[in-house]
Amino acid sequence: MESNQSPPRKRPRRDRNREKGPCSNPAQEMEHEIWRDFPEDLFETVIARLPVAAIFRFRTVCRKWNSLLGSDNFSHQYSEVPHGLPWLYTITHENANNNVAMYDPSLKKWHHPSVPLAPTKIVIPVASVGGLVCLLDLSHRNFYICNPLMQSLKEIPPRSVQAWSRVAVGMVLNGRNSSDGYRVMWLGNDGTYEIYDSAKNMWYCPGTFPPSIRLPLALNFRSQPVAVGSTLYFMCTEPDGVLSYDVSAGIWKQFAIPLPPHLTDHTLATFQGRVMLVGLLCKNAATCVCIWELQKMTLLWKEVDRMPNIWCLEFYGKHMKMTCLGNSGLLMLSLKANRMNRLVTYNLSKRSGRRFRIACFRVAAKNSG
Fold it and tell me: Of 77, 107, 207, 225, which has fewest CB within 10 angstroms of its CB?
């Protein structure tokens, strides 16, 4: 190299990219061609494995992607894929409006999706199965089926039996997932009941109660019915026990099961095909939340877990009230007393609880269901 020549300078990367730009266009066009013809069923396979929060964002990309979520094939694939902890669905009522609030236990976060609800009527969630939520208006006359993931709402036909008293409502699936259809059952204290079959889009009454079951039923409406397979379980009082109905077989059974002593607020739950009881024990000034499992052989409640002592000490001497929501082994407990609100989740599979701040409670405290 001659002494009067300066060494060549290294060109900036952006200049080199400009020179390569024209050569990258064919690759970009080829990539566009590949994605344009990408099979829709593979899209659905990928979407079905996304977290629920990501699926809500996925809907907003374009109309075509939004329509993919409404296909029967996607519903089938989504039901076959194992997912994480289930979400908890609530409705808050502010200024006579229905507002959906859903809690994601994986992210420990509340979501407020724009799910369409009956605009002129206050509705409460009364049952759920397979990702579907059954809503009932305050007049106890009109039923709605909401699919939060699909952001859809359907009003089912009016009941043929004009019963205006309070009813207990449960849901079961016709098959393995919601694409096979579902059935909604309502039951009154006087023994009147009906079942709605989504496959036939009609209500029907399978028959009357067997003579062995005492009427009136004295249903505990604070405990929502729970489903194990095609069987619904209702909590009863006077005498304390459980009433079950196999929707597929049409078989009623009644079990007189004494409640644990010193039990105040309580509700049914399910976990892996087992019937559970969640209750608030209050003895003298001590208060504690306990979990029991129904023993199939003895038909007695067996305690399986209780709230840690350090939490129970916080409730000592306070008059507590408890309400409970449950979904596939995940429980959300609302514990309330004067000047104290607590929201607690409990995972039945891990037998672990987590206490939340009061700010989280205020979101769900207005839930009428």
Answer: 207
Q: Would you list the domain boundaries of the chain?
A: 35-83, 262-369
Tell me the Cα Rg of the chain: 27
Spatial separation of the C-alpha atoms in residues 301 and 294, rounded to whole Å: 5
Whether 89 contacts 98, CB under 8 Å:
no
pLDDT, one tens digit per residue, over 165-210 is 789 999 999 987 777 899 999 999 988 999 999 999 999 998 888 8
Three-state DSSP at 69 gives coil
Q: Residue 301, class by beta-carbon neighbours within 10 Å (0-12 exposed, 13-18 middle, 19+ buried)?
A: buried
Q: Is the pLDDT of residue 124 over 90?
A: no
- Tokens matching residue 260: 């644990």
Read off the tokens for 139: 């007049």
CA distance 98 to 153: 13
- Residue 156: Cβ within 10 Å count: 16
Answer yes or no: are the C-beta atoms of 186 and 250 closer than 8 Å.
no
- Residues near 36 by Cβ (< 8 Å), separated by ≥ 6? none
Q: How far is C-alpha 249 from the chain's CA centre?
A: 26
31: pLDDT confidence band, cut at 50, 70 and 90?
Answer: low
Answer yes or no: are the C-beta atoms of 279 and 288 closer than 8 Å: no
Whole-number Cα distances in Å, 190 to 164, 186, 307: 12, 12, 37
What is the distance between the alpha carbons of residues 154 and 165, in angstroms, rounded to a whole number? Answer: 23
